[in-house]
Amino acid sequence: MLHTSDWHLGRSFHRISLLDAQRDFLDHLLATVEEERVDAVLVAGDVYDRAVPPLAAVELFDHALHRLAELRVPTVMISGNHDSARRLGVGSGLMRHAGIHLRTDPEGCGTPVVLTDEHGDVACYGLPYLEPALARAALGAHEGGHTAVLGAAMERVREDLAARSGTTRSVVLAHAFVHGGESSDSERDITVGGVSAVPASVFEGVDYAALGHLHGCQTINERVRYSGSPLAYSFSESGHRKSMWLVDLDAGGGVSARRLECPVPRPLARIRGTLEQLLEGPELARHEQAWVEATLTDPVRPHGAMATLAARFPHIVSIVFDPGVRDGGGEQVSYARRLRGRSDQQIAEDFVGHVRTGREADELEREMLGEALEAARVEEAQEGDSQPGAPGAARMRPVKAGAEAAG
């Protein structure tokens, strides 16, 4: 099985189109399918970068599906939190006759795509991204939160698997943030109620879990892995090795995996220093053809810094000005460092304390902020699966009611 995810078709990099790089990746994927004699392709969500993708991205996706169908390689694909599940799932009933299996409906979590090899059946279950507020009722979860809804989906998987032959092997595709995974700046926050990560133990009972959402290729344990995105979508991914997993299941469900590198359109580099240091430092010569993010530490913002740096780094795309501020102990601490690792909820609470000169958000205000952030996420998910212009104001009413009660 070839495990990939997070294509984000249609996404740009600092206003630079990545469509050609994404086309090169898909050509690489198709060549790998042929060269490695792949039996099945697994795509663990975030096929597109947004709910309504540009036409060029849709055409690229359509081309890839036609090529996979021509190669007669079964493909199992789920929707991620960037996709519109309903739009991605259009035509899925017809596509399955060509071996393309789209899994976008939470209620279908317990219905696998059954693949067969010389050792017997492999039940492949597709769990699309499960927004807790929207999927809880459909899955009959006893409570909200990512762990509860994903756990309810996995219960359906285990029930179906228990009714099959004891020799049936099993694979799950899921789009989630699992404990132990390392995130980057490119993934959209899926925190709900302050908790987004789920334990890897939720996938117990299956032979392999093919995960999407985190953009770094990583191994949670032997049976639970992220393929990561095939391209870097932010400078926080500059240290990633972009790749896919080629996974073998033996007759008893044992897993072996080999990492296959993806083509790199242009390397990424983060450089830091004063303008003079960046222009003259000989150690930076290796980054002159990279996409560059330069952090300038000059105490006064230099005039025309982007044009000046472009003379040496023609592919510079971002400049950050970070002279730093001093903390109570006199150490310089940048704004980015102060925010690093903090959730949206924590940042919002910090802002309340800042504008009120040290009076932090109280318990009721923290609850209201959490409700507002969750409502915004739910509204975005619902709008992605509705027609443009669909009314959404009613979804904010619980937050408004809370504000009136506080007043």
Automatic annotation (TrEMBL):
Chain ranges of the Nuclease SbcCD subunit D C-terminal domain: 265-352
Annotated segments matching region Disordered: 376-407
Gene3D superfamilies: 3.60.21.10
UniProt xrefs under InterPro entries: Calcineurin-like_PHP, DNA_Repair-Maintenance_Comp, Metallo-depent_PP-like, Mre11_N, SbcD, SbcD_C
Domain Calcineurin-like phosphoesterase per the UniProt entry, residue ranges: 2-216
Keywords assigned: DNA recombination, DNA replication, Endonuclease, Exonuclease, Hydrolase, Nuclease
Pfam families attached to this UniProt entry: Metallophos, SbcD_C
Transferase listed as a keyword: no
Domain of life assignment: Bacteria
Subunit and partners: Heterodimer of SbcC and SbcD.
Job description of the protein: SbcCD cleaves DNA hairpin structures. These structures can inhibit DNA replication and are intermediates in certain DNA recombination reactions. The complex acts as a 3'->5' double strand exonuclease that can open hairpins. It also has a 5' single-strand endonuclease activity.
Entry's family note: Belongs to the SbcD family.
Name of this chain's protein: Nuclease SbcCD subunit D
Organism for this UniProt entry: Streptomyces daqingensis
Gene from which this protein is expressed: sbcD
